[in-house]
Structures are given as structure tokens and as C-alpha cells.
Design brief:
Blueprint (H helix, E strand, L loop, with lengths): L4 E8 L2 H11 L15 E4 L7 H12 L11 E8 L1 H4 L12 H19 L3 E7 L6 E6 L2 E2 L4 E2 L1 H5 L3 H19 L18 H8 L2 H9 L8 H10 L1 H46 L4 H9 L3 H7 L3 E3 L2 E6 L4 E5 L2 E4 L6 E4 L1 H9 L3 H12 L9 H12 L17 H11 L4 H9 L3 E3 L4 E7 L5 E8 L8 E3 L10 E5 L10 E5 L2 H10 L7 E5 L8 H5 L3 E4 L5 H13 L4 E2 L7 H10 L15
Helix pairs in contact: 10-15, 13-14, 18-21
Length: 600
């Protein structure tokens, strides 16, 4: 069940009221429902031996210029707590018991909230631990610092409508402070009321219930079995049973409705916050949208998963696009597209096939929130709900695994690309390569900590399938296809990294290497922009195992400019997979996988 924040405010209009309240909170009088074996704690005002009445009087005299009016509220008592589910999540109904760490976290947070909101106007706060659930009674003197008068109206609201609004904002503030503890705000505008303890006991001890129990007392000479059967047959008891069953059903419905209402309230608050944020940022909208449109289209194309055509440096290919970029303009020459536009927002909308709002969210994800254009005030009002949920549309979603297609993909990798069956199967079992529903080989991209954040797809269907590209949402600068081999044991630190331009190239290089005692990582990075540079700077041995084309030469040159200790390793043929297939064709001795330290 969701733990809710609880806050109530009560007016104390006379010093007699203040003294009476202190008698209860300071336990200066007997309290029937309090456990005398448990000690309460004074959080604010500890060590001050004066009465609460004297403390309030002295603060009013020192901070106000005028005598309080007869109808002035001299002090406000604020009750702070949370529902029992927070303090004892495993047994909410077990009164008088709580988790010590949770109680201390609540106490520290609530005290900080009081001090930040009311400063020295909060003259006392008592933490009660001798009742069913921990709670705080705080006393705040409502002094207006500007007018130097008592003003409950300014602090907590005057009229009924103002009071509801002020109290609602106060509850928002309190719930926001408790949110890190997992405590949420209750339903805004709820009509639920607090039942006083004495009213509860009056209901329990009411005469009709006592008379009902007396009527069911054992008769003279009646055995226990006879009494049981008579009670069972009594129509009143049967009616009570039906009522209890109805009550249980009603409570369950109420609980579900309350949970649904809490969820709806969370959505409303999130939407409210989004609209407020949009309003605050409205003054910088024009500047922000211009910043987005001025982003280099080449960099945006790369982030979108496109790759440069080394024969024509203005052209970018991938994902069924052939896009020519000239300054701030682009045109897609692919026969199925034939579309042009200008600026990074248009480019993202075109390649990702998304709307304006989703394109903004994508750019924010890749370039930082400071450059996110939130649209105009009108846009905020009309589409705030859409904007508040766009984060889910730009997240990476892994292609669905299709085990039926795996055999065909495995045949492509092991027969057409000549990769060893045992290594391909091991990578598959590790979850690093699998088949999707279109029979693509899906190479899983991960951060260096192993978090999945992308996928590289390679088409395998048909004789001349050249399809390759990145799944939507893939982070090319934060994730890579990589695996580790060699070393004496899997926990050995990586001392050597071999960089390749594709997953198949990385596997091919690993296959052709002899077993080694050096722990080696094989990592696919198809561009200098996507290197985990900080990681590589601390690796003593970095090898650049790129292909034999001019574009591979250029990639290697750029990488060596930033990683001076990296050395080039060049295949004799076009690439390393061609070299592997040539070795297999010439039937050279089979290279064995490392027998130790295997971890993919």
C-alpha cells in the first residue's frame, strides 16, 4: 500500500488554548491512549524550561509592533506524520511498532522542513513516540515579517477558499520534502476527515453494542456447544456477518479506488510541474530553438545512426536513407524517401519518423536539457501532456528475440562469414547476439559496466543482403558491442583492447589470435566519435584492427591523434573477416579459442 504524507493545522486563538495544547503534547496531564513506558522527544526548543505560553508571548513582543487583535490567531499547531505503511510496511496495523531507521529519516526530514519554512517562528516541536504511529506537534507563531503583525491569513489563508489553497500548497511542499523517503501526497481536495480518539471510544462503547452482547450471554445450564449453535442461528448475528462481508468488499473497492486516485494524482502533479516549467522557460524559447537548429547536421546524422560515405563526404547512409547534407540543409535521395528539409529538428523528425515534440525530446537526450526547446506558451497549454510523456518515446527498446529465426542467423554467421560455431553459440548463450523477427543478426551494445543501451543489426536474409544499422534509440557514444577473452581467469583486469569497425570484425580478429595469458577486450567502434576515450587512455596496449580501405586509414589516423599509444594492425585483405575466410579456404591449421579466462 502507498504511504501518504499527513499534515493538519489547528488555530490557537488564546493563551488558554496554547496552554491546553501544551498539556497534551508535553504530557503535562494524563493521556489515556499514550504508552507511559515510551519517551517522547523535543525536536525544537529543547532545553527551554519556559512554558509554551511564555515562549509565544516573548516572540510576539519581540517581533511585532502592535498589540494582537482580539480575534488574532496567536499560534498554529501543525500536526506532521505519515500513514502507518511507511513506518511499519510489513505490519501497518500493528500499533506502537515501527522501523527505527524509517522513523529517524522521517523525523530529520520533517524537522528540516519546519526549520526551512518557518525558521525561528517555529518555537517548539514535539516528536510523539508513545502512541500508535510516530508524529510531530509543531507550534508556529504566524508573524508577517513585513508588516510586523500577527497574520494567520498571510501564512495559512483567510477565507475558506484561501485557506484550502494555502493548505493545499503547504501539503504539496511537505509531501515534496518527504518524497525521497517514498512517501507521497494524498489526493488533492480529498474530503477525508480526522476522527478524534474520544469519538472513536464513544462509538466502541455505545450502549446498543453493549446490549447486543448481553443478549447473547450464556443461559443457565447451556453448554458451550449449545451457546455456539444458538449464536450461529441468531438472525442478528447472521445479519452482522452479511454486513461484515459487505464491509470487507466495500473496503477492498475503496482501497483500489484510492490507489487509482493516488496514481491519477501523481500524473496530475507531474503535468502541473511540466506546465510550470514550460511557463518559466518561455522567455528563452526563441533562443533555445535557434540553438537546436544550429547544431551541425553531420553530428546529428551520426547520432541518428547514419554513416558517412567516404566517396562523397557530404552524403550519409543507413536505415534506408541516402542523405546529402549541405550546411544547414539536407535532402534524402533514397528512392523510398525523396524528402528535403533544414535544421536538426527536421532531420530528426525525418529519420526517426516522429513528430516535433518527440524530436525535441530526442535532441535533449543527446545534447542536454539546456538546449531543449519547450515550444511556446500556447504549445504548453495544448500539448503539455504529450511533452510530459515523450521521454518514453526516445528510450532504446531492444529488438524482440525470435528463436525460430536463430538457426538461419547462426548459419549465416558460421557458414557465410566462417565464424566458429562454438564461439557464436557461446555469444548467443551469453545474450550478446540473437535473431530478430526479420532474421537480422542483433549484436547487443552495452556500456563498459554491462548495461544494455543499444543494438547493431546485420541483415542475413537472401544472398546479397547488405542491410546494416543501429536500432532506434541506440546510444553510439555510450555503448559498444564487446567481449573479453584470454587471461588466466575471468576476473583478471583488461590489459589489452582491440578496436574493430563492426561486431563481425571483432569476432573474426579474436578467432585468428592464439590463446594468450593477457586479458583482452574486443570492442567494435565504427567511428572516432564513439570511443570510450577515458577507458582506453588507461589501457597499456590498444590495437586498431580496422580494415584496408581509405576510410579505415582515415579512422585510424584520427584515433591515433587522441590515443598516441595506440598502434595500427592492418589485414592483408580488405578486412579481417575476408582474412578469416581466406584462411579457412586455404585450410590453414584451425585457431583454437583460449582455454582459460573465457568470458564473452
Amino acid at each position: 500500500m502507498v504511504a501518504l504524507a499527513i499534515l493538519r493545522v489547528e488555530k490557537l486563538k488564546s493563551f488558554g488554548n496554547i496552554g491546553g495544547s501544551e498539556k497534551h503534547t508535553a504530557r503535562l496531564q494524563q493521556t489515556p491512549n499514550a504508552d507511559p513506558t515510551k519517551q517522547n522527544i523535543r525536536l525544537i526548543g529543547d532545553g527551554d524550561e519556559r512554558s509554551l505560553e511564555d515562549v509565544v508571548k516573548e516572540l510576539i513582543q519581540s517581533k511585532t509592533k502592535y498589540q494582537p487583535r482580539k480575534d488574532s490567531v496567536l499560534c498554529s499547531e501543525i500536526f506532521l506524520s505519515a500513514s502507518p505503511e511507511y513506518f511499519r510496511p510489513d505490519s501497518p496495523s500493528k500499533a506502537g511498532v515501527w522501523d527505527l531507521d524509517r522513523m529517524q529519516d522521517f523525523t530529520n526530514t520533517a524537522r528540516t522542513w519546519l526549520e526551512e519554512n518557518y525558521s525561528d517562528k517555529c518555537v517548539r516541536a514535539e516528536l510523539h513516540l508513545d502512541e500508535a504511529t510516530p508524529h510531530i506537534h509543531a507550534y508556529v507563531v504566524p508573524i508577517n515579517e513585513k508588516t510586523k503583525r500577527l497574520s494567520y491569513k498571510e501564512m495559512f489563508g483567510g477565507s475558506q477558499a484561501q485557506g484550502r489553497l494555502k493548505l493545499s500548497k503547504l501539503q504539496d511542499s511537505y509531501a515534496k520534502a518527504l518524497a525521497p523517503l517514498g512517501i507521497q501526497r494524498g489526493i488533492k481536495g480529498s474530503q477525508a476527515t480526522h476522527t478524534k480518539v474520544k469519538e472513536y471510544y464513544q462509538a466502541v462503547n455505545s450502549e446498543p453494542l453493549t446490549l447486543e452482547l448481553n443478549r447473547l450471554a450464556p443461559l443457565r445450564g447451556e453448554t458451550a456447544q449449545q451457546l455456539f449453535e444458538r449464536i450461529q442461528a441468531d438472525p442478528t448475528i447472521q445479519a452482522i456477518n452479511h454486513q461484515l462481508a459487505d464491509r470487507k468488499f466495500t473496503l477492498q473497492k475503496s482501497l483500489r479506488a484510492n490507489q487509482n486516485a493516488v496514481t491519477a494524482e501523481q500524473s496530475r502533479i507531474k503535468l502541473e510541474q511540466t506546465v510550470a516549467q514550460l511557463l518559466e522557460e518561455n522567455s528563452s524559447l526563441r533562443q533555445q530553438i535557434q540553438q537546436l537548429r544550429d547544431l551541425p547536421l553531420e553530428d546529428v546524422a551520426w547520432q541518428l545512426g547514419l554513416n558517412p560515405d567516404w566517396k562523397n563526404f557530404n552524403r550519409w547512409k543507413g536505415r534506408n536513407h541516402i542523405i546529402n547534407i549541405h550546411e544547414s540543409k539536407f535532402y534524402d535521395f533514397h528512392p523510398s524517401q525523396l524528402h528535403g528539409g533544414g535544421g536538426s529538428i527536421d532531420l530528426v523528425m525525418h529519420v526517426n519518423e516522429c513528430n516535433f515534440t518527440t524530436a525535441l525530446a530526442w535532441l535533449n537526450q543527446h545534447y542536454g536539457s539546456s538546449k531543449l526547446e519547450r515550444a511556446s506558451l500556447h504549445w504548453a497549454k495544448q500539448q503539455a501532456t504529450d511533452i510530459s510523456t515523450t521521454g518514453t518515446t526516445v528510450e532504446f527498446t531492444a529488438p524482440v528475440k525470435n528463436d525460430v529465426q536463430w538457426q538461419a542467423v547462426q548459419d549465416y554467421l558460421t557458414q557465410k562469414r566462417q565464424l566458429p560455431v562454438n564461439l557464436v553459440q557461446a555469444l548467443h548463450e551469453r545474450g550478446l547476439v540473437y535473431a530478430d523477427e526479420r532474421q537480422n543478426a542483433v549484436f547487443v551494445m552495452r556500456s563498459l559496466l554491462g548495461e544494455v543501451n543499444g543494438a547493431f543489426l546485420r541483415g542475413t536474409k537472401g544472398e546479397d543482403n547488405t542491410f546494416m544499422g543501429y536500432e532506434k534509440g541506440t546510444s553510439r557514444s555510450d555503448g559498444w558491442f564487446w567481449f573479453r577473452m584470454g587471461g588466466k581467469k575471468p576476473t583478471d583486469e583488461v590489459e589489452r583492447v582491440v578496436l574493430c569497425k563492426s561486431p563481425i570484425e571483432a569476432i573474426s580478429v579474436a578467432v585468428m589470435e592464439p590463446s594468450t595469458a593477457t586479458r583482452t577486450m574486443y570492442l567494435a567502434a565504427d567511428s572516432p566519435q564513439s570511443l570510450p576515450r577515458e577507458f582506453l587512455e588507461n589501457i597499456p596496449n590498444v590495437e586498431l584492427a580496422y580494415g584496408n580501405s581509405p576510410s579505415d586509414d582515415e579512422t585510424t589516423r584520427i584515433i591515433q591523434e587522441v590515443l598516441s599509444h595506440a598502434r595500427r594492425r592492418k589485414p592483408q585483405l580488405a578486412d579481417w573477416n575476408e582474412e578469416l575466410k581466406q584462411r579457412q579456404l586455404l585450410q590453414q591449421p584451425e585457431q583454437h579459442l583460449p582455454s582459460q579466462g573465457r568470458e564473452y
